[in-house]
Amino acid sequence: MSELVLDRLRKEYGSFVAVDDVSLHVREGELVALLGPSGCGKTTTLRMIAGFIEPTAGRITIGGRDVTWDPPYRRDTGMVFQSYALFPHMTVAQNVAFGLEMRKVPRAEAETRVRRALDLVRLGHLADRLPRQLSGGQQQRVALARALVVNPGVFLLDEPLSNLDAKLRLEVRVEIRELQKRLGLTTVFVTHDQEEALTLADRLVVLDHGVVQQVGTPEELYEAPANLFVAGFIGRSNVLRGRVVERGRFVTEAGLALAVPTDGFEPGAAALALRPERITVIPGAAGNGVSGRVALVTYLGAATEYRVTLDGGESLTASMATPRPGDPLKRVGAGDVVTLTWPAETCRLLAPDRGAPTDEGGS
Amino acid sequence: MARAAALAAARSGRRAGAFSLGPALAVPAALLVAAFLAAPLAVLFRYSLNRYSPREFMIDAVTAENYIRFFTDAYFIGVLATTVQVAAVCTAVSLLFAFPLAYLLARTDSRWKSALVIAVVFPLMVGNVVRAAGWMAVLGNDGIVNHALLGLGLVTQPVRLMYTPFAVHVGIIAVVLPYMILTLQSVIEGIGRDVEEAASNLGAGPITVFRRVLLPLSLPGVIAGSTLVFILCMNAYATPVLLGGPQFKMMAPALYDQFVRTTNWPFGAALAFILMVSTLVLTVIGTTVLSRRMHHRRLEAAPR
Amino acid sequence: MTRMTIGRRALVGAAAGLLAAPGVPRAQGGGRCVVGTWGGDYQDLLKANIDDPLMKPQGIEVLYDVAVAPPRKTKLLAERMTRRGTFDVACLSDIDMFEMAQQNLFDEPTPDLVPNMRNVIPALAKRYALPHIYSGKVILYNPAKMAKPRSYNDLWDPKLRGRVGLADGLYMQFIETAALINGGSPSNFEPAKKKLLELKALGAKVYPSNEALAAALKGEEVWATIMWLARGFMWKQAGIPVEHAVPEEGATPIVFDKAVPRNAPNKANGWKWMQAMLEPSAQAGFAARMGYVPTVRNATLPEDLAKQISFTEAEQEKFVKIDYQYIADNNAAYLDWWTREFKG
């Protein structure tokens, strides 16, 4: 396994910048997810790493070797395609053996390794089948085995779960994580599904319009999003736009004054991001907190969501553990007056410049 | 036939518990084929068993003499051999020329793609005769090629290109190339680009990708295209007549001679049948060998 | 011609249906006449010289079934046992027409039916058909390259090595020519073989079509050929450098004949069309455009034109008398020889 370094990698199509100076250091054995909405440049980045697209500028090194201008077949990457891209005219075993054959691995050794790889993905019994005789999940595992059997320097996964149904997706997700850990694979994983990224990755790279928005562990991204885009894309956030009026004090556009940590912010326009699960809902009017009326109650099993219209007209969504019977909260419904409170330090002030792809938000 | 189909439809309908139109749908096509293909062929075959007389035109008989004449005459065997040779060479060469172009057409994202496809199809709109006339202007002693050769001082006398087997091959390949390209293109388009990328990712260079992935997967197109083109070549008429000159004989012009110049319908019919059957047999053999080889390689490559 | 039982049924059932169906609308009696002919110039001239001025005034509508000769022959043969055929008038060259007439396909013209046939040049008259226009086989040569030939024999001159071109389709004409200068006759072409092989040894070139030969003459790849005078006239008009010479062996006529099939749907109109065709006014129109000469004695051409395309009395006297029966009987054998021995 090798480390992978992207150095100001750039791809332009005419005047359109698909990937805008992306730099990234993937450590040995680390799983990094490239995350972003469609068209954000994550797949283009992955395909440049694999060598299917030539970068306009920048450098790619794998294990210290500059591969920027190497053709795909000299890069030592193992890729799992979104469509799996199995060879339809070869059996499962022949598919898996292909990479070994290309590397001139002696036949006996190749057979052993193919068998081991198939056992690893629990498909040893289907070695002689053709891909079209397998289910989607099985094809997916063949694709994994085919990429892994050659011990690639870097393991690349392009939305590998998007063609599976929801239940299978969870299973395969766990399986991929286990394999990756067990084999210590340096892995780059492309997905548009933030939950998938959060549960799988050691670190995440959030991309938008070809630009890296933030790089960090799932926790860093969740707790300390660098901007509104990340705040909205990783988990969900309430966003209230307004101004910092003085140290420790933020006033929303509707005039609601809130105490927030303003470190690093001068008075002026800003946006406040607040996770729904940090908000506590208290039935009735209480002294401390922000009051409003419940607009909608959504039961989600373990949690219940309350959409509350504040007195100033802005909305906040709060997520509470579903109240037990007897809890006064249990009786709260649409139209009831409630008070919302939250610890001031959970509010996060962000630059107001960029909108977030979120259905939350004040204005 | 229609009644049988209707009965079959009714029976299957009863079994399935719902009326099925399936078999009935084939009836009009079957009738059409019977009327316009099978019947004339039967008539033609009957003619081939008749006897020819210059005065009486065609004498009713049941004789194999037309077939015997063909197979005992070195001249006609030679005509058939020439035909097969030309068809085989033209099929192979057009396959070789067409594949890269078809691949390009199938894989390009260019906005000129439709223009390129039209450019490939365009020659099909020009009749073979007109095209042959074009080749005459190119290959004639006074043609473009000779002008160029003479102008460049590469030759001092015009090189004879027209009325040579070379001209026939060039002419026929030009006629059949679009069919080959279009057939291959549609098959290659059905092969995901990601499959090629996967092979490349696993360490296969371009030639290996072609040999191990692209070619085997496009084999149905290769077979279909080659079959189509081989049949067209075997039956070529205008091109060999106009570009090969009077000395160059292929089967279609030879049987035309029999029908038209000597009104020898029985022998002409026999030639037509021999041409048809040899085309059929060679096509079947070729197709079988190709698919068998494909299958064979698959088994051979399987790790045991 | 009575041993065709199976063939007949098959023909009537399949061939007639298949071949006739896509043709012209079937002419119903009263006012129609279906002419099976070549297309292009020839059809235009038929319309302009015969139909518009002579048939229309009679209230007869003329329809054309346009094709080259082979399909027309096929149709005639295929329909021979049907009661109603396609054509009221069929046009064919004299050799083709004889071949068809052998099958007893046509009604014989009589002066009662076609009064104008009294004016037909006797040398061109036939029992089964009427001649429309004619020309004759001559030598075409490039006057800038060679002297005017007097005899076909002059083409066997070693000085013309590789300069004689032949059009493949006229093989029977070359065979006849070679026979005439090597002790043969219109009824014996056998001596032609040796003579033609000499011509082959002298590098004579065979072209697949008249057009290809014309191109070779124009490019001066070849200097001489044996061809119909009418075509030579048209080639000259098109700027091909040729003059014609009537050989001392005599020109061989080529005649475009017309006949009325026994099963013509509008037979009476067919005969009326024949009568119109032989009108002097109708005949002259074909000369200027196609180079063919009238077949009736009472039609005259402008003197200048006549000099280029017609044959003098003396030349007409020397016309080769074609033995159609001999040609019909031996065509297949000579084509075979031509294909293998001469071209091979």
Summarize the entry for a quick read.
The complex is a heterotrimer of chains A (363), B (304) and C (344). Chain A has helices at residues 42-50, 92-102, 107-120, 136-148, 166-183, 194-200, 218-223, 228-233; strands at 4-13, 16-26, 31-35, 57-62, 65-66, 77-80, 154-158, 187-191, 203-208, 211-216, 238-246, 249-252, 257-259, 268-274, 280-283, 290-299, 303-310, 315-321, 337-341, 348-350. Chain A is α+β, with helices and mostly antiparallel strands.
Describe the structure.
Chain A is of the alpha+beta class. Chain A is built from 8 helices and 20 strands. In chain A, the strands form 4 sheets. Chain A has a 6-stranded mixed β-sheet, with helices on both faces. Chain A is elongated, with a radius of gyration of 25 Å. The model of chain A is unreliable at 355-363 (pLDDT under 50). Chain B has a two-stranded antiparallel sheet with strand order 1-2. In chain B, strand 1 (51-53) and strand 2 (57-59) form a beta hairpin. The N and C termini of chain B lie far apart (50 Å). Chain C is of the alpha/beta class and 344 residues long. Chain C has 2 domains: 5-132 and 255-294, 3-Layer(aba) Sandwich (D-Maltodextrin-Binding Protein, domain 2), CATH 3.40.190; 135-252 and 321-342, D-Maltodextrin-Binding Protein, domain 2. Chain C has 13 helices and 11 strands. In chain C, the strands form 2 sheets. In chain C, strands 1, 2, 3, 4, 5, 8, 9, 10 and 11 form a 9-stranded mixed β-sheet that branches. The longest helix of chain C has 19 residues, at 324-342. At the B-C interface, helix 2, strand 2, helix 11 and helix 12 of B face helix 1, helix 3 and helix 13 of C.
Which helices and strands appear, and what pairs or packs with what?
The complex is a heterotrimer of chains A (363), B (304) and C (344).
Chain A: E1 4-13, E2 16-26, E3 31-35, H1 42-50, E4 57-62, E5 65-66, E6 77-80, H2 92-102, H3 107-120, H4 136-148, E7 154-158, H5 166-183, E8 187-191, H6 194-200, E9 203-208, E10 211-216, H7 218-223, H8 228-233, E11 238-246, E12 249-252, E13 257-259, E14 268-274, E15 280-283, E16 290-299, E17 303-310, E18 315-321, E19 337-341, E20 348-350
Parallel strand pairs in A: 3-8, 3-9, 6-7, 7-8
Antiparallel strand pairs in A: 1-2, 1-4, 4-5, 9-10, 11-12, 11-14, 12-13, 14-20, 15-19, 16-17, 16-19, 17-18
Helix pairs in contact in A: 2-3, 2-4, 3-4
Chain B: H1 2-16, H2 22-48, E1 51-53, E2 57-59, H3 65-71, H4 74-107, H5 113-121, H6 128-139, H7 144-151, H8 165-189, H9 193-201, H10 206-234, H11 238-244, H12 251-261, H13 265-301
Antiparallel strand pairs in B: 1-2
Chain C: H1 5-20, E1 32-37, H2 41-55, E2 61-66, H3 69-78, E3 89-93, H4 94-101, E4 106-107, E5 130-141, E6 165-167, H5 171-180, H6 192-201, E7 205-207, H7 210-218, E8 224-228, H8 229-237, E9 243-245, E10 252-261, H9 267-277, H10 280-290, E11 293-294, H11 303-309, H12 313-317, H13 324-342
Parallel strand pairs in C: 1-2, 1-3, 6-7
Antiparallel strand pairs in C: 3-10, 4-10, 5-8, 5-9, 5-10, 5-11
Helix pairs in contact in C: 2-9, 2-10, 4-13, 5-6
